[in-house]
Please model this.
Amino acid sequence: VVKNPGETEFHQAVREVLESIKPVVELYPEFEKDGILERLTEPERQIIFRVPWVDDQGNVHVNRGYRIEFNSALGPYKGGLRFHPTVYPGIMKFLAFEQTFKNALTGRPIGGAKGGSDFDPKGKSDSEVMRFCQSFMTELYRHIGAQTDIPAGDIGVGNREIGYLFGQYKRITNRFEAGTLTGKGVDWGGSLARTEATGYGLVYFVEEMLKDVGETFEGKKIVVSGSGNVAIYTAQKVVELGGKVIALSDSDGMVYDPEGIDLNSVIEIKEKRRGRIVEYLKTHPSAEYNDNSKNIWKIECDIAFPCATQNEIDIEEAKTLVNNGVLVVAEGANMPCTPEAIECFQKNNVMFAPAKAANAGGVATSALEMTQNSMWESWSFEEVDKKLREIMKNIYSSIKTTAEEYKKDGDLVFGANVTAFLKVARAMMDQGIV
Ligand code: NDP
Model:
């Protein structure tokens, strides 16, 4: 706390992991001797830089850019970029810390990082976004590379932004290094199924959890928060597997459509037009709108997928979900549930899937994109999707087994933290005190 004042989200993420791995750390004194915990909680490198840009009216703006290269024990740094006005070191560091563990769970050779800016893409023209991205990359380019650090998208950074960032990287370096960024357009080095991967992977993960209790998605009522990349493709896969998505949200409010949300309309509004979820009512007047996004958790459902942002489910929302008989809560966003909410789910026998395992399909598919880039190949949608499904199954079975080994059956939070920790910690010990 003294070292990292005011970084609430970072403290929250570190505390959750440290508490969870305590029994394991106590079993192996060598971790303490090697200073593993101290090293694991201190980023290897933190880069903070000025991002000046000019808007369409000729006014100068200055934003702050970040890249937190947290841990490279398992491979080059890898993690997304977030453009959102709430970005500050506490959020960047929590995301980079979590990414280290998530990447370990994918089984791919990737370390953990995160970056971004307090720039708000909302309401900006394409040219403004382009100029911002070019300015951002003009500093970032010297820190990244296929063998060093490979950024990707996150909140506010989608295909458009990755395109502008890649274009500027190529221009400055005079190299078409496809492996430097992931989430690229499929015609210029991107992977098919990357857009869908986080959402699809999340649903594949929950499918495995449901199988264990003899259940499927068929006929289930599902609530998904957000209406961005993760939310949309979670909803799409749920519907394909027979579930009914009855609510979605954005930062302004939520829509409830008991008949089942028409996803094509949402894609048209949010993905194609960058509009607001309230516009759904124009074409679906019988749906209900509420201007408090958090009210989405008051809707009775069998499965809840928080896919918007951190800390969107606190104890109050958790209690409501439990009282309404929720069966599964699976985190699509990073750290959307507070520790109190998670405790509430676990105490009430709600099956709970933690983000670092359940939403790892996106970064795992980014790693598949890197593999394709290094082989100068592009695989079919079906091939990537099949690999993604396998990866999610493996993550589920490995963290479940770890939980069982330590007599914590069904505690996937423990399973995910310990599986990932042991992998990263052992690699760090092999590589000496660095
Ligand atoms: P997007 O920018 O595509 O979408 C974010 C969505 O969440 C938007 O609909 C946004 O609404 C909504 N939102 C933001 N804040 C709130 C809020 N306070 N209340 C309700 N809705 C809100 O981002 P992604 O879908 O990519 O990311 C969502 C989450 O998933 C993040 O936590 C991210 O870190 C995580 N994640 C993403 C991965 C990926 O591959 N994209 C991989 C793994 C994790 P609005 O339109 O109003 O801004």
